[in-house]
Amino acid sequence: MTPPSEPSNKSETIKILVVDDLPENLRLLQEMLVKQGYNVRFANSGKLAILSLSRFQPDLILLDIMMPDIDGFTVCQQLKANPETENIPVIFMSALDDGTNKVKGFQVGGSDYITKPFIAEEVLARIRYQVSLKSLQQQLQHKNQELIQQNKQLQKAQYETKLLLEATWTIEKSHTLEEAISSILDVICQNIGWDYGEGWLPNPDKDVLEYIPQFKSCSAAFGRFQEQSRLITFASGEGLPGRIWQSHKPEWIEDCSTCSETVYLRTQLVVDAGLKAVFGVPVVESEKLLAILVFYQTQAVPYQSRTVELVQAVATQLSSPLQQAQLKQELQRANLELELLANLDGLTQIANRRHFDYRLQQEWQRMQRLQLPLSLILCDVDYFKRYNDCYGHLAGDDCLVQIAHILYQSIQRAADVVARYGGEEFAIILPYTDTQGAISVAERIHTRVLQQQIPHADSQISPIVTISLGVSSLIPTSTDSPQSLIQLADEALYQAKQSGRNTYAVAPAI
Ligand SMILES: [Mg+2]
């Protein structure tokens, strides 16, 4: 690529425009400059010089002052007024060796001044000086751009770090994973200037996402939206949280209030709350989704990659501390379970009364937070005293073990609890279950006990062992207590017994 001949490659690339009305001056300068390897163009008038600049962008201009059409000062002024040519250094050339002209030359933006007749070394030295000065200026500009860019990145990193530190600190202060997520929503909302945040957590069975509200800075305007959202769960692929759960990727909707129900699902609720733009990011640790963070604004906002990247970066950094918070919580729960294991009912090996009380309290609080129904079934072996009298206590114990086993086999979800409530009474706690669901469970149990065909010669209603069941169901509120659910089930059980036993009764809704 490089020509083997002189001049050097470096000066070959430097382009110089020479402007002079005298042909001998042009010839002289051409000889001098081409020998040095410069790429030289000529113009014999100011007009031509300006015209030629549209096709030839020189690195330097040698400009005569005295010319017939437009003088050199005017040409220079025009060049300096044009942003495309203002940075080309101009060296004035003139036979007039007086101070006034030199001063004017610099005033109109000239970089240097050469007097005629030319001294070759002087001309070349001045050209080299201007060319290197220009090159340095360009380098400086370039460096400056780089610094501006680095500074922006640094600011971004500092901002991210600040947000991250704040968020990490809130996780450490939190007692539960839910509390941690609530607080993180606060911190992120404040930092990115969005109006409202919500979190979604997979439930213990990992089949739906449950709602986690923002902790404290939620404005009253969004209160109803929050209340209504508590009642909703999303399965994988459903709505914005469900889609993020499935894809593990962020999603942005410019204006969810105009989305169809199939895309957003809570369209009417966001319309009522006045929320428009929404985006969500997943919190994933080792390919496992821990939570989804969703943010809203009251304005429609087109996709902002910077916001998503920032929040996703923070969410990714938080996944590990969040998982630790979750593990801590699970460990605490496991420890409690272990402790309670020691209190399993010795005879039937299902939960004892103490475990029942604890779990009922726990599920009561959880369903109260989620505003979902909680059901309870109490059941009693019919004429059990007669069974004991007839077959003896050992056979009575064996009968209870069989019934407990049937009950245990009849519940399907990990969150359900079967407990020995006392004597021949059993209790079943059914979270996420409304009256209809609880009736199905009661019917299933009732049928299975009959199918077991345990002989009961002394029963007054059947030759085999039968049970009576009382079902109650409600959505827990803060003004109520688990005791009211027990009382309702107890009344229903009494009802079932009154109506002849071997059946179930349902407490009326309150
Ligand atoms: Mg002249």
Automatic annotation (TrEMBL):
Keywords: Coiled coil, Kinase, Phosphoprotein, Transferase. One of its GO terms (molecular function) is kinase activity. One of its GO terms (biological process) is cell adhesion involved in single-species biofilm formation. InterPro entries: CheY-like_superfamily, Diguanylate_Cyclase, GAF, GAF-like_dom_sf, GGDEF_dom, Nucleotide_cyclase, Rev_trsase/Diguanyl_cyclase, Sig_transdc_resp-reg_receiver. The keyword Transferase applies. The modification 4-aspartylphosphate is found at residue 64. GO terms for cellular component: plasma membrane. NCBIfam families: GGDEF. This is Diguanylate cyclase domain protein. It comes from Lyngbya aestuarii BL J. The lineage of its organism: Bacteria, Bacillati, Cyanobacteriota, Cyanophyceae, Oscillatoriophycideae.
